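Project channel, design review

CF: Before we commit to the Oreochromis aureus constructs, I'd like one complete example in the thread so the newer folks can see what an input/output pair looks like. Taking Ig-like domain-containing protein.
RD: sounds good, go ahead.
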Amino acid sequence: MSASWKQPLFQICLLCICCRHINTNTLGSTEVPQVPNAALPTRVRSVVLKGENHTEEIQLHEPVNLTLDCTWTGNQKKLLNISVYWTKDGKEIQDTQRSVQLENEQYTLKQDFRIVSEDNLGNYSCVFGTDAKIDFILAVPQIGEMRDKPIVSYLGDFVVIYCKMEETKPEPRTWIWYKANGTEKILIAEESQRYEIHNEGWKTKLKIINLTDEDSGSYYCGAEYRIGTSMSHVELKIISFIEPLKPFLTILAEVIVLVTAILLYEKIHSKKNNTEEENVPNAHQKNELPQGEAKELEGNNSMRQRKV
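CF: and here is what came back for Ig-like domain-containing protein:
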């Protein structure tokens, strides 16, 4: 009797033990594992400040554990203790304020930062009281070639816009293109029949065909890295084929007006001279007629005197 109930009881206990090892979580509730700090590369940047301020630029293309090490040689006061803290983009970082002692005639401040996304980039500053500060500007590699003047092309024609990253910098993972629409940037789809995008390592190009007036504006190329995107832009201006001729046509019109004015002046001046020349002989005739009559009278008088 006792053996009959012991066997079912043993089976129940064994079933409970097995159920404890069954994972009851569903697939939808599984959390994405976080990347541990040890999996990220580590970088250290140290700066020794002998004055009041200094700016250090740091280019990052992938997530890192970044250690910023600040050393300040101090000023004439040489206080035994000073208050120090860290800021990001001008705002104090929480729980970073502390007091450091003067050691070996200098103050040292070190902080570890986990830089894993574009939001973590920016301006980090170690501040020594109110006397000194070191700025660390964290950014993705910047596109070196910047075009100041706009690209000019013609209606109905095509244009090719280039964008290039220096090959001494890390190679971008890919490139993207945008067109400005007011304050927004619209992603240019390569599938469009009027756009052709060709990416090749450190450079990219965008070809636009059948240009219209609406194609004028700002275009942005973006070099994408694991930690963020580096942007550059260029202006495109679309004009008609007659546009370059406008200065020449303006000069030509001015020349025609000037030549016409000169010809009119010459014509009027010539007509006036001809009129004056016609009037001069008449005046001479009027003056000579009395002189002839006077001579005739003188001749008649001399004849009369001889006869007498």
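RD: helpful, thanks. Residues 37-139 form a domain with the Immunoglobulin-like fold (CATH 2.60.40.10).
CF: The two ends are 210 Å apart (CA to CA).
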